[in-house]
Amino acid sequence: MELHRGVWKSTSGGIDWAPIFDDQITASVGALAIQQSNPDVIWVGTGEGNPRNSLNGGYGIYKSIDAGKTWQSMGLEKTRHIHRIIIDPTQPNTVYVAAIGSPWGEHPERGIYKTTDGGKNWRKVLCKHQNRSRRSHHGSLQPQQTHSFAMGTQRDPWFFTSGGKGSGLFLSLDGGETWKRKTDKDGLPKGNLGRIGLAIAKNKPNIVYALVEAKKNALYKSTDGGDKWTKS
To answer: Are strands 180-182 and 168-172 parallel, antiparallel or unpaired?
Structure first.
């Protein structure tokens, strides 16, 4: 029996599927993003992105410009686990990558990376100076705006709970160049924050929802692009 792994593609609306990532060095995939202005451009981040007590690592990020027929390694090989890839909807050569690094300890490759030249060069724009024990592994970008969000959560391999020192929600208003951590002073819950699920309203991008894991889990809403929050 032939074994296929990694990324699969359908050209029949999901009725039939075919593998398109078999020949790469790793089959562990944590993130996938398709350029909406040109669907032939596909980004794949390798390494499982949702750490529990076991997970498979990867070997950086890959890009296809021919709808998955061929792939090129675009670096970030030491990040181990890529959880999210965000393509700027108005400037597709600008791409953000949220990487965990080694999930069970401090790791210098952990953080949010940004390229403005289609992956030729990358800069770490979050966690460069912050506590590296933070698990940075989510990201989101407001359509046609410069609002970027990053969520970090800390876990240990011997617990099933998440959240720790340095975990939280971060907001950038300049395309990821600088970041500000949002806290209980902005309406979010006090104490350690765990996983955060984020959703931005496409028709009203200043409306943002965050499902926050905390001492008391709750859904929070912002109507000003993520500056201030209220519990819904």
So the answer is: antiparallel
Phi, psi at residue 217, to the nearest 5°? -60, 140
Backbone angles phi, psi at 119, to 5 degrees: 100, 0
Q: How does pLDDT run across 151-168, given as a tens digit for each residue?
A: 555 555 555 556 566 677
Chain segment 57-92, per-residue pLDDT in tens: 889 999 999 999 999 999 999 888 898 899 988 899
| Whole-number Å distance between alpha carbons of 74 and 61 | 6
End-to-end alpha-carbon separation of the chain, Å?
51
Residues 112/176, Cβ–Cβ less than 8 Å: yes
Burial class (CB in 10 A: 0-12, 13-18, 19+), 69: exposed
- HSE toward the beta carbon, residue 84, CA cutoff 13 A: 22
Name residue, tokens 């770490």.
124
pLDDT at 40: 97
Task: State the DSSP code for 203.
Answer: S
Q: Pick from 90, 91, 63: which is nearest to 75 by CA?
A: 63
> Is 134 or 231 the better-scoring residue by pLDDT?
231
- The amino acid sitting at 216 is K
Residue 137 has pLDDT above 70, yes or no: no
Q: 133 by DSSP, 3-state: which?
A: coil
> What pLDDT is stored for residue 153 in this prediction?
53
